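Page 42, continued from yesterday. The earlier attempt failed because a stray header line got pasted into the input along with the sequence. Redoing it now with the clean sequence only.
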Amino acid sequence: MVLTTLAAQTYQGQLSVSEALTDILNGIVALIASSKPRIYVLNPANPLEDLSERWDDPEQYAAFVTGMHELHRDWANAVATVGVHNAAKRLEALFGEPVKTAVAKQARQIQAMREQSVLRVAPTGLITAAPAIGLPIRANTFHGMK
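This time it went through. C-alpha cells are written below.
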C-alpha cells in the first residue's frame, strides 16, 4: 500500500513502463533525500491515517531507504544494459521468474512471425508485424545452414 501510494504520487503519465518506473524511483529517492526525519505517506482516502507509521522505528525506515536506493541503482543498471540477453538477465535478477517467462513468450511470438514472413523492420529501426510498414526480415539461415 505504501509503495503503491508513493508510486501514484510520483507518476507523471509516462508513456512506457520503463520510463514510469525510472521516474517513480527517481521521485522516491528525491523524496527520501528531502524528507527529514522520514517520508510520511498518508492514505489518500483518509489523510489522517499515516500508512507509513511503521517507519517511526528508525531501523525499519533505514531498511526501506537502503532497499529503495538498491532498487534505484539496480534498475538504472538494467535500463543502461546493452543487448537483449544481458538486459533480460538483469531484469530477471530484479523481478524473478515472470521476466524469464515473458522473455520466452516474446521470443516464441517473434519466431512465429518470422516463420510466417510477417516480421518487418520500420525505417525507425522498430521491429513490427504491421504489413504496411518497413522491410521484411529475411529468414535466419544461421550462416547458410537451414
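Notes: The first helix runs from residue 2 to 10.
Reminder to self: strip header lines before submitting.
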